[in-house]
Design goal:
Layout: H1 3-7, H2 15-23, E1 34-38, H3 45-52, E2 57-61, E3 80-82, H4 90-97, E4 106-110, H5 113-118, H6 120-160, E5 163-165, E6 174-177, H7 183-192, E7 198-202, H8 206-211, E8 218-221, H9 229-236, E9 245-248, E10 261-266, H10 270-279, E11 283-285, H11 292-303, E12 308-311, H12 330-336, H13 343-357, H14 359-370, E13 378-380, H15 397-401, E14 412-414, H16 421-433, H17 439-450, H18 459-470
Parallel strand pairs: 1-2, 1-4, 2-3, 5-10, 6-7, 6-12, 7-8, 8-9, 9-10, 10-11, 12-13
Antiparallel strand pairs: 5-14
Helix pairs in contact: 4-6, 10-16, 16-18, 17-18
């Protein structure tokens, strides 16, 4: 590409005036916190955007490195840029630079002359930005609807757990089981090699595994809704409550977890880290992914330096089957079954609702962009989603022959607290709110959880709201 080509993106006589004239044609929401520029060339939009909104972050997504085409004015540089040669994928870059926001707080600005020059590369940048915004907008709506529930779950759960799992990284092959219909095809293979595998199961897959006589080594739960309790109940049905659990403490956990060792997962938020460190609870930090399957893979890579296999990640229905059988929710449909509302019809309606919802395609698209960032020791077993087809393997043999260390038992620690841990946690957070090092970030994190519908509130009001929400948990659990 010649130097003249990049200059054709801007006026040869007055590029600043051209950029200003273009911005004047756009509508701006005063609540915008991030400007996302799609191939802005030499960045003449940047200083003009800073004048309009000094607090907003400006990010540029480039189809080519503009610096190679000549002088890049210093005042035109955005807060951060993504280039095709960047080590991070585009989605990873956006995740690292953009906090949890609603889609309306991000303004995408195209520099349309770039379309004719870069063509498909430009369209791909725009498509990736749209996918990211769609995903975080869904996350923001979820937080708005369930944030307070998650917050309460966290403090209820620290009152419940009595044993902690020490987070360690070992050398052994892990098979991670999702609950997609494809799990049924690989259960015989898992059962055949059970003694040489560490089985990490998402909670929704436990019913299918147990029906085949497979007890997981670790069960993962991240869902904060009460319906998720049905999956965990499978862990304790018919045997002693000694199933090891890995869980985000914002998840809905049954009281039986008080008798089980728990590997605590923080979502990397400051408020969770402060409470867990203050209470002395061992934990690991994993970013929120929106789907338990992605969190399970992150956890698998944390737990082992060995090979990671996964199965049951169909991200699609198989005819009207939405999950591997048996499935914890089946009892809900069976209880409602009658002559006018047969079980088969309910399952058919549910499969159609899941298809219409579009969540499977969103997750599949995310995994497609994420695969390059995963370690090269990840392999697919069975009929998973087509986005994983390049990871497919036909046998566990080689991995099991070179499995390294023998499977080690999970090491645990009995927890003890001088007083009710929820009460101590509340005190830790209230003290942190008035610490200048933490105040701004805690307000940003806690306000959406504690007062999502209200206008901005004062620090004192936030502290009072915090204590009022948590007070009911002070009389629960251990004293």
């Amino acid at each position: 590409m010649q130097q003249g080509n990049i200059k054709s993106l801007h006026s040869r006589y007055n590029p600043h005036g051209e950029a200003e004239k273009y911005l004047n044609t756009l509508a701006f929401n005063p609540k915008v916190k991030v400007f996302l520029l799609i191939e802005p060339g030499l960045g003449y939009l940047v200083p003009l955007l800073r004048k309009r909104n000094q607090k907003a972050k400006i990010l540029a997504l480039h189809a080519a490195n503009p610096a190679q085409f000549g002088n890049y004015p210093k005042e035109n540089r955005p807060d951060a840029s993504w280039l095709p040669e960047s080590q991070l994928s585009l989605q990873e870059f956006l995740e690292s630079e953009i906090p949890d926001l609603e889609g309306a707080e991000i303004k995408v600005i195209e520099w349309r002359p770039s379309l004719s020059l870069y063509g498909e590369s430009y369209v791909q940048l725009l498509s990736e930005a749209a996918k990211f915004i769609k995903r975080i907008d869904a996350n923001a709506r979820t937080v708005k609807a369930f944030g307070l529930k998650w917050f309460k779950n966290f403090f209820r759960n620290i009152n419940i757990i009595g044993q902690a799992v020490f987070p360690v990284t070992l050398d052994f092959p892990i098979v991670m089981t999702g609950a997609g219909p494809g799990l049924e095809d690989t259960i015989p293979l898992i059962r055949e090699n059970r003694s040489a595998l560490f089985v990490l199961a998402v909670s929704s897959s436990v019913a299918s595994l147990k029906a085949a006589g497979i007890k997981p080594d670790l069960v993962l739960g991240t869902d904060g809704g009460n319906w998720a309790l049905l999956h965990f109940h499978e862990c304790f049905r018919g045997e002693a409550s000694n199933q090891a659990i890995a869980a985000s403490l914002s998840a809905a956990l049954p009281s039986q977890c008080g008798e089980s060792p728990v590997l605590t997962i923080s979502d990397s938020s400051l408020w969770q880290d402060l409470v867990l460190k203050g209470l002395g609870i061992p934990y690991i930090s994993l970013a929120q992914r929106g789907t338990v399957t992605a969190t399970a893979l992150d956890l698998a890579f944390y737990l082992t330096r060995g090979t990671v296999f996964f199965t049951g990640v169909d991200l699609s229905n198989k005819d009207i089957r939405t999950h591997a059988r048996p499935y914890s929710f089946d009892m809900l449909w069976e209880e409602k079954s009658c002559r006018l509302n047969p079980f088969y019809s309910q399952i058919f309606s549910r499969s159609e609702d899941i298809k219409t919802g579009g969540s499977h395609s969103i997750y599949a698209s995310w995994f497609k962009t994420q695969l390059e960032a995963y370690p090269k020791r990840l392999y697919s077993l069975g009929p998973n989603n087509p986005v994983f087809e390049n990871l497919a393997v036909s046998s566990l043999g080689k991995a099991l022959e070179a499995k390294g260390n023998s499977l080690s038992p999970i090491k645990t620690k009995t927890l003890s607290f001088p007083e009710n841990p929820a009460k101590t946690g509340a005190k830790i957070l209230k003290s942190a709110l008035i610490n200048p090092l933490y105040t701004a970030r805690l307000i940003e994190e806690l306000c959406p959880l504690l007062c999502p519908e209200e206008a901005p509130i004062s620090l004192d009001e936030l502290g009072e709201s915090l204590m009022a929400v948590l007070k009911p948990y002070w009389g629960q659990g251990r004293e």
